[in-house]
Design a protein that fits this description.
This protein is of the alpha+beta class. 44% of the residues lie in helices and 14% in strands. The protein has 12 helices and 7 strands.
Amino acid sequence: MITPTILHKMRKKNGLSQGFIAEKLGISRPSYVALEKGERELTLSQAEKLADVFDMSFERLICGDNKEVKVSLEEGKKPIRRFDTPHRRHSSGHEKKKEAEMRVSVPAEKVEKFKESLLYILGKVGGKPNVGMTVLYKLLYFIDFDYYEKYEEQLIGALYIKNHYGPTPVAFAKIVSQMEKEGAIEQVKSKYFEHEQTKYLPHKRADVSEFSAREIKHIDEVLERLSDKTATELSNLSHKDIPWIVAEEGRAINYESVFYRTEETSVRKYDENAV
C-alpha cells in the first residue's frame, strides 16, 4: 500500500489537515497520525476512501502519487499479459503524459485461476487469525515466485509491484471486488492484536479442476511453511527476496530474478555440479 512518507506528502500537497483525513476515514486523529508515522497499516477500505479524497484511482494510490497502474480484467480468452511501460515510449507530446503509467490487461483465464487460487487459500487458512489482506498478498507472491523458481513455469502468474510493505498483486483489488459482487467471498473487518485487519470469508469451495496435482501440492507446501507467520514476518521475508530487492519502487517485480535468490529465500535444489 501507500507508504507513510507518501501519505504525508500527498496530504500536504492537497492542503488537507490530519483531522480532515481522519474524519473521511472514519477514525480518530491520533489513529491517522499513526498511519503517517507507519505505526499502523491502511486497510483496504481506508485506501479506497483515500483514493476518493485525493481524487485518484485505487491502483494509482497503491503505487504512490507519481505512478499510475491501470488494471483491466478481460472478458475474452487472451493468453498474454500486455504492458505499456515508459521505456517503450518516446518522451514527447502525448507520450510524456503516459510516462508514469503502466497498463495491465489480465486475460480471463488468469483472472479465473487467481479467483480459484484465492478461494483455495481462504478455504485452507483463511480462518487463521493472522491471515488478513497483507498476509494474503505475501502468500500469493511466494506461491507464484516459488513455483516459477522450482519449475520455470507460472502458476497463477499474477503481476506484482514493489512497495513499502512488500510485493503487491496489482489486480487483487479489482478481482476481489468482482468476487464480492458474485457472492464468492465476503470482506470483514477484525482486530489482530492492536492492528485493524481486513479478512475475507469464502462463500464457496474452490474449483481446482484446472489445477495440476503438482500445483495443488505446491500451494499446500507454501501454506504449510508460511501461513502461520504474521504480516510483518512475511513482509520482512519478502524484503530479503532478490526479486523484490532488485525491482524499482512502484514497478513490476521480474519473475526471472528468482534464479538469483540467496539461500534464505530459495526453494529450488540446484545441481552444484551443473555447468
